[in-house]
Design goal:
802 residues
Length: 802
């Protein structure tokens, strides 16, 4: 179906759900089913402000707090959007489609505590914030109804102004600061491009795809791919841009390159060159834009090409494969102008029996001659962390295990592994050019990594890890080091009674000064009780769970509560990889939109339990063999542990899951009688619809058909005799969980006479964002659980007024 056809179908589905004749089927009455409101206090909780995002300036003396609105209205999600080649674009302003935006910026001076609010328009919607290299101002994109604008705001005064308009933000990273902070490299909508192309309603021929013998393409199932010539024309129109240089005064110089499908453009650290990635035809209807034919070049700031790095043809590859030739092409962050890239030495096949799978190469300006070999890798390259002239840390994966290699760029070809096992995420700092660099200890002999909420020191010679700066107190998490020595820390603290706030502490964490004073966004949750349960399942595997009880519930005095249990299956290589002791109380407990949807039930007289759901590999750490019996054993042990507290009624338990957890919920109903009801959100129930692998499963359906069927609740729909509520976003673009999964699972359940309900939420994706969608989803869940778990009288809620 073409994009235009998909839009029409989506609108028709939305109208049907909003009040068409079929909408009332299974509804609360004989009329159209409108968006419903859940019982109090859930609507007020959903309207609570979200925690802002924190951005520390490169100079480490200021913060920018990016404020987020509460759940947006459904009208925002219903705005026009086009899905093309795996990307979403707003056809009205040429910005990204279906994206969440910030609506406010507050600057905080860490020395004085002074706050400055950026002077933004009342209807501001901003994305893509970037600090200037000197930390004096913040740039961002302003989403306007008819265009995307580039703005800056002064951290000292809060003054904000428009720099330029007509930004083409269809592809990510539509702009970049120049290293001197004096302007930007931007991608602009081509001038006078005319009206969008209109599809020809009379076809001129069929749409053809072809497969050649010997060329395998085990492709991931993706949404929003190109579907025909009309989509190709729209892709060219909305994603083509011109590259220009824009000063802080808004004066544009350029174009620096011919108009085209510029996927990425980044200035070199010294500002003398730019690295450009451009797409070209022929396109594909099977893969997204990132796999289209690609040309990567280096240009000087006059726009002349000085090096053609790669001209790569269309790549229709399996998700585990990589293209041959240069890939992951980037600037070396700690050098003026040096290219670095990876090349496969296994023909792109990680299963090949070779000693070296990837090689990292580099080439310095003026980009003539042959590149130097920086390091050979026995696994697949993932990232470089640049430190100094003689030090970089290369991250790679070997047999799905993390490996870090210390290299000396001044002596190409030399490197050594940094210890064994996971090292942790390195702490980074920003240099005077705005580039990310490894944060090393003052003596230069160790790097710093995050761990245990604080910072650990990793010796560069031995790999030995020792605590370096560990913030004091439970519920304290490091946000940033505020000086090179780590004597001043920015931390986030919370406890059972206080919301997360930012503090500046000394290196020991013993003295602290408050930076923010956020109030409790949901005081209705004050007093919610938490218990960490540790136990073992029937085969001895150690497990844990967190049990939440409503405020004021008295165990042993009040009646045991009905229970809503949740979980998400996680593959464990072996029993030793399952550690029950790692779970801690979650501290300040407040729900945050869809991600905590189960917690809202605490306000309705339910206990909530988050269960550990390990699936221990059966011989092969990349398969999910024995999935269903293990999730049943996990759940049975968790219910026994919860019942042993005396707080919950084991015979009145329901299970809820999202995504892979939704399939888990359905499996538990199909393969056990542990739960009275189930709720499954945005799930994938038929694994034959993802035949080339899913989650950590790397075998194809044709290699393990019995396993694919065993892990598909669809195949056991005839065994589900408990009520199950299915919910899905109509615009779910997740590769494994398209709405078809829920549609066909519901049809199978209905065909076998099961008690089931299927709710399709218009305009929603894999998780749900709109206020109306979240309210209705919680109305559905509370109504379902009250009817089938608690009693048939207390359904609560009401109809949303128009």
């Amino acid at each position: 179906m073409s994009t235009a056809g998909r839009i029409a179908a989506g609108l028709a589905a939305a109208l049907l759900l909003a009040g068409g004749p079929a909408a009332a089927a299974g509804g609360p009455d004989d009329g159209p089913l409108l968006y419903q409101v859940p019982p109090d206090p859930i609507p007020a909780l959903l309207a609570a402000p979200a925690q802002p995002m924190v951005m520390v300036s490169p100079s480490r003396d200021r913060l920018a707090l990016l404020e987020r609105p509460a759940a947006p209205p459904i009208a925002e999600l219903a705005a026009p959007v086009l899905g093309l080649a795996g990307h979403m674009v707003d056809p009205l302003n040429n910005g990204p489609g279906g994206i969440s935006a910030y609506d406010g910026v507050v600057f905080i001076d860490l020395a004085s505590g002074a706050e400055r609010r950026a002077a933004l328009p009342a209807d501001a919607r901003i994305i893509a914030p970037l600090w200037s290299p000197d930390g004096q101002s913040l740039a961002f994109l302003m989403l306007r109804p008819e265009e995307v604008e580039l703005w800056t705001a002064s951290a000292a005064t809060g003054a904000a102004r428009r720099v330029t308009g007509r930004i083409n933000a269809a592809f990510p990273q539509a702009y970049a600061w120049l290293p001197d902070g004096g302007g930007f490299l931007v991608r602009l909508v081509p001038g006078e491009r005319g009206a969008p192309p209109q599809p020809n309603r009379v076809p001129v021929g069929p749409i053809v795809q072809q497969s050649e013998p010997g060329r395998t393409a085990a492709l991931t199932t993706l949404q929003n791919l190109l579907a025909g010539p009309a989509d190709e024309a729209l892709f060219d129109y909305y994603f083509a841009s011109t590259l220009a240089r824009v000063g802080l005064d808004g004066v544009t110089s350029g174009p620096l390159a011919p108009p085209g499908l510029i996927l990425d453009s980044q200035p070199s650290p010294d500002g003398r060159y730019l690295l450009e990635t451009r797409l070209q035809r022929p396109y594909s209807y099977s893969v997204g834009a990132g796999s289209f034919p690609t040309v990567v070049v280096v240009r000087d700031m006059g726009g002349e090409i000085v090096r053609r790095v790669v001209d790569r043809p269309l790549q229709e590859l399996a998700s585990s494969a990589v293209p041959t030739g240069p890939r992951s092409i980037q600037w070396r962050e700690d050098a003026p102008a040096t290219l670095v890239w990876a090349e496969a030495r296994d023909s792109g096949d990680l299963g090949a029996d070779v000693a070296v799978h990837d090689q990292l190469l580099m080439l310095a300006a003026p980009f003539t001659g042959d590149p130097l070999r920086l390091i050979d890798l026995e696994g697949r390259f993932s990232r470089v962390f640049w430190g100094r002239e003689d030090l970089a840390l290369v991250a790679s994966a070997v047999d799905r295990r993390q490996q870090r290699t210390v290299v000396d760029p001044s002596r190409p070809g030399h490197g050594r592994k940094l210890g064994s096992g996971a090292v942790g995420e390195p702490v980074m700092r920003t240099d005077s050019r705005g580039r990310g660099r490894l944060h090393l200890t003052p003596d230069g002999e160790a790097l710093l990594v995050r761990g245990g909420g604080g910072v650990q020191r990793v010796d560069l010679e031995t790999g030995e890890r020792t605590p370096y700066r560990v913030p004091a107190g439970d519920g304290t998490v490091l946000v940033a080091l505020l000086d090179d020595a780590g004597e001043r820390l920015l931390v986030r603290r919370r406890d059972q009674n206080a919301p997360p706030n930012l503090f500046v502490t000394d290196g020991s964490g013993e003295t602290a000064r408050a930076v923010t004073a956020f109030v409790d966004p949901a005081p209705q949750f004050a007093g919610v009780q938490q218990r960490v349960l540790t136990y073992s399942r029937s085969d001895g595997v150690p497990l844990s769970a967190t049990l939440f009880l409503p405020a004021g519930h008295r165990v042993g005095i009040d009646d045991p509560l009905p229970l809503l249990a949740t979980g998400y299956p996680v593959l464990a290589a072996d029993r030793a990889a399952v550690r029950a002791g790692g779970r801690e109380a979650e501290g300040f407990t407040r729900p945050d939109g869809f991600g905590d949807i189960e917690l809202y039930l605490l306000t309705q007289g339910y206990a909530v339990m988050r269960m550990a759901m390990p699936v221990v590999a059966d011989g092969d750490p990349e398969t999910l063999q024995g999935h269903a019996p293990q999730v049943v054993a996990n759940a049975a042990a968790a219910l026994d542990a919860a019942a042993a507290t005396g707080a919950v009624d084991r015979d009145r338990a329901a299970v809820l899951g999202w995504s892979f957890g939704a399939a888990m919920a359905a499996d538990l109903l199909a393969h056990s009688d542990l739960f009275r009801a189930g709720v499954a959100l945005s799930g994938a129930y038929n694994r034959t619809l993802t035949p080339f692998g899913f989650q950590t499963e790397r075998r194809t359906f044709w290699e393990a058909p019995e396993h694919y069927m065993a892990i598909s609740p669809f195949a056991f729909a005839d065994r589900i005799n408990e009520p199950i509520l299915l919910m899905h976003g109509a615009a779910d673009a997740n590769s494994g969980a398209q709405p078809m999964q829920s549609e066909r699972f519901f049809a199978a359940l209905k065909g076998h006479g099961a008690t089931a309900r299927y709710v399709l939420l218009p305009h929603e994706g894999h998780s749900y964002r709109a206020r109306e969608s979240l309210e209705h989803a919680l109305w559905e869940i509370t109504t379902w659980l009250n009817r089938y778990l608690r009693d048939s009288r207390a359904v609560g809620g009401g109809e949303r007024p128009e």
